[in-house]
Every structure is written in C-alpha cells, then in structure tokens.
Amino acid sequence: MISSLFNRARNPEERRVRAWCRETLGMTPNDLALFRQALRHVSAVAEDRPDLPDNERLEFLGDAILDAIIGDLLFATYPDKGEGFLTRMRSKLVSRQQLNTLAKHIQIEKVMESNVARSHESSVPGNALEALIGALFLDKGFDRTRKVVVKLLTTHFDLKEIEKEDRDGKSRLLEWGQKRRKKVEFIVREEGGSGRGKHYVAEVRIGGEVRGTGHGASKKVAEQDAAQSAFRGMRSRKPQQPRSQVPKPTPSSEHAPSMHAPRRGSRPTRPGRSDEPSNNAG
Length: 282
Hints:
The structure is a single chain. This protein has helices at 2-6, 12-25, 32-38, 56-77, 83-93, 96-105, 124-140, 142-156, 159-164, 169-179, 219-237, 251-254; strands spanning 184-190, 200-206, 209-216. It is mainly alpha-helical. A three-stranded antiparallel β-sheet has the order 1-2-3. Strand 2 and strand 3 form a beta hairpin. It is globular, with a radius of gyration of 21 Å. The termini are far apart.
C-alpha cells in the first residue's frame, strides 16, 4: 500500500507514461521514475539539471537483456537449426532497423522525452526501446520482461518473413552490377544534425540513373536503405508493361537480384549490431 502511494503518478506526464505502459506493455510500473528515465534521451536533459539521468545506462542494460531473450526465443523456435542460422536471425531481430520499426509500432515517441528533430530518421526510438527493456528488467525481473518482449515481437513481426530478409543489399547490388557490366554508384550526403542526431541521405545510381534513395543515422545505414529502395523499384517494374512515357527496360535491367524485401519498414541494420559475416556491406 505504501509503495503504491509512493509511486502514484504525480503529474499529467507521469500519468501518461503509466497509462501507456498499461496499454502497450500490459503491466503497471512499480518504479515509475525508472521508466521515465528509460524514455528520456540525453538531448532532453537541461544543462542546469545534471542530476536528471538520461537513458544511456538503461539502454546498455536493455541491449544485453534483449540479446538473451531473443537467443532464448530462437533456440526454442528452431530446435533443428545450427549456431550460424541462430546468430544471423538474432542479428536481424536486434538490428537498429527492426528496433526502430518496433518502437514505431508501439508508438514509443508518444511518451519519449527528446529534443532530436523527428523529421529525420534516427536511432533514438530504438535506443529508447532498449532502455525500456532495461527498466522493465529492473522493475519486474527477467521472466516478466521476457513475456512482454516476446509478445511484442510475435505481435508485430513474422519470423518467417524475417528469415527471408537479406540485409546486405549494397553488396548484392554491386555484385549484380558487375555481372551485368552496369556501373553501380552510391552517393551519400549529410543533411543537418550533429553527434548522435546526424542524418545522411544516399542515392544509388545504376548507369548514371538514380534508382533508389535511402536515409539513415550513418552512411552505411543510408546506403543499405538506398539499395533496398533500388531492389523494390526493379521488382515493381518486372511484372508490369512499361508505360508510354517510360523507356522500355532492357532484359538485363529487368532481372533484379534475388532479394526478399522486409514487409515492415525498409530500414537496414543499425551499425555495429550485426555480427553475421555474410551480411556485412562491402
């Protein structure tokens, strides 16, 4: 009773966070301050409030907890698969792209504290999700955290579709260009932001023509996103008759590399998380 009174929401912001946790995670926080910290990006901490903790330490903890939960889930789901397959699947599930996609599905930005411009793609939502997992672990323990995370994953993602994804679009596209003697270029430029808020835009050009555009918080992320954009464009042209204003593609340009595009979101893996050699961009 005393603990309940102590942790009662004291203002509209705390009531909003608590209501969101109940609706989205299916649980009520015991330590509401811990969850507010998890949702507080460093950019939201005022210079005159150095005592106000940001979510970076909880993000570190949540990252480790998430790896353990994903490992446990995959080990049980694929009893006949080897270590290499399990490692690749885990890398896909904990990639920055997947975490950002999941964070958007659960609308974490509604309760985040951040001064990073939301007009650009960034890693802030995915980082907040990891920090939230860290807070949930400290507040409720591993078993409860595992149940919440697994439910979120199975609700918003299809493991069978993730199996089909090939994240290393850049290398695949360059190889495709070499085989068909087509020049494939990636042009990257920086657009605003600083530090962790930097934003990059990439174009992929095939034979001098822009065939895909990508965005990301790093050059690598933007390039991978551009490659996926190019793949989608080539596949969309393949089954259709060319329109009158569009020149008829040559046969070699119609056969895009064998790629399975993500069903949810198109952002590539976040830098530094993928430990699968076959999925590293060249």
